[in-house]
Amino acid sequence: MSGSDYSGSEFSGSDDEYVGPRGGGSSAAAARKIVNATLQQAKKSERKAQAWERRKGESSEEEEYIPTFEEIEDNDVPEQSIQQMEEERKRKRLRKDTKPFQRGIIRHVVLVLDLSEAMLEKDMRPTRFHAMIQYAQEYVREFFEQNPISQMSVLGMHDGLCIRVSELSGNPAEHIAAILGLRTPLNPQDFSKEPKGSPSLQNALELARATLYHTPSHGTREVIIVFGSLLSLDPGDVHQTIRACVRDRVRVSVIGMSARLKICAEIVNKTNAGDESEYVVATDQELLRELLLATTTPPVVRATKSAEEIAPPESAAALMMMGFPSRVIEETPTMCACHGALTTGGYTCSRCSAKVCSLPITCPSCQLTLLLSTHLARSYHHLFPLRNWAEVSWHRAREKGTKSCMSCLTPFPEVPPDGISGEQQTNGHGANGRIHGKVAQKQSNDDEEQKASESSRYECRVCESHFCIDCDMFCHMVLHNCPGCLSKLDTPAEETNGIGDMEMTG
Amino acid sequence: MNAIDASEHHQRVDESVPPSLLAIVLDTNPHAWAHLSSTLPLATALANLLVFINAHLASGNGNSVAVIASHSNKSCFLYPTPAPASPQPRHNATNGDVDMNGTADSTSYSVQDNPNKYRPFANVETGILNNFAKLMEGTKESHLTATPTTLIGGALSLALSYIAKATLLNLPATSSTEEAMLAIADPEATHSSYVSLASRILIVSVSGDLANQYIPVMNSIFAAQRKRIPIDILKLAGDTVLLQQASDATGGVYMKPERPEGLLQYLMMAFLPDPTARRSLVMPSAGGVDFRAACFCHRKVVDIGFVCSICLSIFCTSDLPDNLCLTCGSYLSLRAAQSNPPALIPKKKKKKKRVGGTDSATPGGSTPAGSNTPMHS
User: Where in the sequence does UniProt note compositional bias of the Acidic residues kind (chain A) (predicted)?
Assistant: First the structure.
């Protein structure tokens, strides 16, 4: 698919040349229109757009697109705009803000799954329940990938009650097994947890609050509710529970399905200090997955919240005692402290020498947190995120004269000959035309909506290398490094990757 | 891009061995090679490496290779040859001419027409040798004095994004772009039946201390782990824990040969088998890997450390000056960290029971679960 992307883009480039200034001009106009649409949308939605808003924005954008698209088709250059739409969609997935916020790295998360009869709806395939089970497994895996020193527990809202699916622990395998057990029970005599009855938000919040009660104060306390039904059958006053959650510093995010509920909005609003953006509604399966996985990024620590009243001052930060055990390989099998199974290898606790099978883990005998230094390193990219790359105008592309992607060597579409089109574009949108120099450009559009680049090039603001869309996605979603910055010695690589002050030999 | 790759992803035969992409990161740090020059000169090493590359290309029709130099001042592709950027001034009247110039100097090297040489081998060979010569010519004395180390982080990042793109190009045409996007985000989720590109990275490393690139290299390791790309290490000189961890985490081979002059033998025996063949072979393993952490304050290797909850710095002692974190400067308290273990189930306080109280949590410190939570289980 992406292969065809690139061939398509090459064709479109040559088309531009043949059509001459007329074709170029109209595509520029189209590009401007798209930019306007996204700018409007960016204004409309806040830092984290709410789902219904975003959907609305998308649809209105499509309405904008359709005439533009047809208009372009008349001029025989549809490829350009299709490719731009494609790239724009890809780039939307990039994180909106890459400012290094203080984030709650040590998280305690309770994932609450809706197991009420509303989950038997078939608007997701095969049912909401099965879709949710599948995504929840994926979520657990991704969560521990991103947050190796965090803890999680899974609850289920089933038939008016809240059942505990898995205990608070840091072992992804346990959670996944438990979530799978909902669909197909491990023991045949276990009663099936097929969706049944009504959900109760109050019971869920109370049980989650109790689960998080003993967690140390330097970690976050989060509840993520996947809520499929449009009602909550509560035994008491849910507002009291909300107040209690606020007092216990529990932050609740709700991922709804099909429609927004007033009570969910209120829960989220109260527990997130007035910020309602944590309440999102998944209108389809894909969005549900996306929204769920979006919560694997550690939350930003709110500096403005009335921390003094809600939590004691020392809860802000703490020095945690941790053990960095060494791996042992034994001749004869011995029992491990975590499962009681006979194993020949493992890690011995640095304090009490109990043997555990895997890391990270809390030592079963002395409660010391045991992990590898690499687990800590895994969280660094949340603390020092890679800044988003800027779109490159034709003008800028001509200035730099790049022919292929810096990191994958895929050829870029050729720069059209300098002429009317280029000049128009630089006047058209100031953020792209780099007349104002590097500094102005650096400060601008950091928070802006990510959109497609007309020249299919994306530029790192620090090292000024150009990349293709696929490398842009890969570097921001998987690698978290800028290959350009790291490949040159004299660029200030610390700015993007924070090498300087965090150096550490593992 | 290159002839070998292009021929591959159009005519794929399903029952054949999966094509294999080998990305070689060659550490060309001049300081380290100068040390090695008595036993293994760089020219010999390069010749050995070319033989190895040819062997890799010969072992499968779809096999391809990418070579990246990790030099002291930059890291760049040796093969495939990147198209040089031809920057144009803003006001130029005759842009056509500039375009021609840009392409003109890239054609300065050409494949020698040796009828006795397999054409793909000759392509790779000339490409690598030309780019390598260019790299060495471009190295100034000031670059050498600036740093004694090498930019392995950048080279690894280049290799990983190159592999990611090659994997993406190798995917069968999917009906929707959505699936391809999923494939980018997490390869585990989308298991398909197609023969995927098996890629691996080989780092021929000669440099020692890489601590200043800890975070970029770590990020690369995690990316490789996520994409299931093994990183093989051939350590000719120097010693780094970092690269050892890289191969351990990604399931690659780590070798530190005692006699570097036998480079070709090591390459052929330990690093030629691709991931599919390795499953049925006994591969050399590193043995014990040092996982201990060094503290940020005294660089002591510690068993039990104290970690700042905000920036995850490791300290060897809990009494920091003013209880402030040395890295991020936030106030730290040890007391909060020593979390109390979960209390036992509290006894029901019957005298305090108030029906329809104003708040659902009991005042004081008792657990909220036991109070008037109604109807729970």
Answer: 60-77
A-chain residues near B307 (CB < 8 A): 319-322, 376
Distance CA B72, CA B139 (A): 9
Instruction: Report pLDDT digits (tens) over A104-146.
Output: 788 899 999 999 999 998 888 888 999 999 999 999 988 988 8
Domains along chain A with CATH numbers:
3-46 (no CATH), 99-294 (3.40.50.410), 325-382 (no CATH), 390-496 (no CATH)
CB atoms A504 and B359 under 8 Å: no
Under an 8 A CB cutoff, do B330 and A240 touch? no
The rounded distance, in Å, linking the Cα atoms of B114 and B119 is 8
| Chain B: closest CA distance from residue A486 (Å) | 4
How far apart CA B326 and CA B328 sit, in angstroms, is 6
Rounded to two decimals, what is the model's pTM? 0.70
| pLDDT above 90 for B348 | no
Q: In whole angstroms, what is the distance from residue A135 CA to residue A452 CA? A: 29
Contact yes or no for A324 and B291 at CB 8 A: yes
What is the predicted ipTM?
A: 0.73
**Number of cross-chain residue pairs from A and B with Cβ atoms under 8 Å apart:** 368
Q: pLDDT above 90 covers what percent of chain B?
A: 16
What the block records as the tokens of A25 is: 């001009």
- Give the list of residues 6+ apart from residue B155 with CB closer than 8 angstroms, or none: A487, B25, B27, B68, B69, B70, B75
- Which is nearest to A266 in space by CA: A254, A283, A250? A254
pLDDT, tens digit (0-9, with 9 covering 90-100), for B283-334: 776 566 667 777 777 777 788 888 887 778 888 887 777 777 777 777 777 6
Q: Is A5 helix (H, G, I), strand (E, B) or coil?
A: helix
Residues of chain B with C-beta less than 8 angstroms from the C-beta of A479? 157, 160-161, 219-220, 223
Average pLDDT, chain B: 74
Q: What is the pLDDT of residue B169?
A: 85
Distance from CA of B136 to the nearest CA of A (A): 15
Give residue A82's pLDDT: 74
Of A243, A407, A503, the CB nearest to B212: A503
Query: Nearest chain A Cα to B319, which residue?
Result: A319
Q: Give the closest residue to A227 by CA, choosing from A250, A196, A261, A203.
A: A261
Chain B residues with CB-CB distance to A95 below 8 A = none
Interface test with B, best of A308, A478, A485 (most B CBs within 10 A): A478
Q: What is the mean pLDDT of residues B17-38?
A: 88
Query: Mean pLDDT of all residues in chain A?
Result: 73
DSSP element (H, E) containing A370: strand A369-370
Say if CB A492 and CB A498 are below 8 A apart: no
- Locate the chain A residue with the closest alpha carbon to B224: A479
Express each pLDDT in B47-102 by its tens digit: 999 999 999 999 888 889 999 999 888 888 998 888 777 766 544 433 444 334 33
Q: Do A314 and B288 touch (CB under 8 A)?
A: no
Contact A44, A444 (CB under 8 A): no
Contact assessment for residue A237 and residue A205, using Cβ atoms and an 8 Å cutoff: no
CA distance B115 to B121: 12
Instruction: Name every residue whose Cβ is closer than 8 Å to that of residue A498 and which is 6 or more positions away in sequence.
Output: A100, A380, A383, A384, B215
pLDDT digit string (tens) for B240-296? 778 888 888 888 888 888 888 889 999 998 899 888 788 888 877 656 666 777 777
In the predicted structure, residue A17 carries a pLDDT above the cut 60: no
